[in-house]
Amino acid sequence: MPEHAPTCIVAEDEALLRRALLDQLATAWPQLRVVAECEDGASAVEALADHRPDVAFLDIRMPGLSGLEVAAAAVEASPATQIVFVTAYDQYAVDAFEHGAVDYLLKPIKPGRLAATVERLQARSGNNEAAALAGLLERLGAHPGLQRRGDDAPLPLTWLTASAGRETRLILVDDVAYFRADNKYTSVVTADGEALLRTPIKDLLAVLDANSFKQIHRSTIVNLRAIAGVVRDDSGRGTVRLKSRPETLAVSAAFMALFRHM
Length: 262
Fold this sequence. Notes:
Elements: E1 7-11, H1 15-28, E2 33-38, H2 41-51, E3 55-59, H3 67-77, E4 82-87, H4 91-94, E5 103-106, H5 111-124, H6 130-141, H7 144-147, E6 159-164, E7 167-172, E8 176-182, E9 185-190, E10 193-197, H8 201-204, E11 213-217, E12 220-223, E13 227-232, E14 238-242, E15 248-251
Parallel strand pairs: 1-2, 1-3, 3-4, 4-5
Antiparallel strand pairs: 6-7, 8-9, 8-12, 9-10, 11-12, 13-14, 14-15
């Protein structure tokens, strides 16, 4: 174990489940210090980059970025962080984790299973297994059991209404180049111009198609189909060029891992 008090982040979009896991961790690992509680994948990526915790407990299915995508970002943003996936998937899907450099917890989490996970984390503490994790994530990316949407999952948003001056516009989501946080509103940017949406940007993540829209910055969600190219600078940050807009978009260093295989 490290000499300092071990740290972790917990990423789970359902508040009751997040609270339950935190309570169980307090019992199973009293020395563990929780440095961030995250309700979506984007905030988990930022927490990884900011805190570089010893452990990250990641729900696989979250609004915006999935737990798998957060783990992919962790390979660069915090390579020493040990990953524990929290999942409600059946054993068929979980088999994919068995030989990886990660652990997993099945919902509902049983105290004995959590205790065993804590023991393994403590035994492996300090080992850099980023390369093994990266290889595992490539295999998981093609795993059908981890790609399917649940039967009760809502369909992605297909159109929205936004205001442009006194005019209310009906905008197809596929036509949106990117969304940008604008105080209490969200700017909806298309090839033809901009409009304002009253929905906060963090709430959009839950209703957009996660295969097409990715958060690339605290304040920006981009349509992957609208991207012409991505350039990384020496600091690890990136810049997105768009097909139909002259401006470029900044990509936080923590989110650059999302473009590794593009």
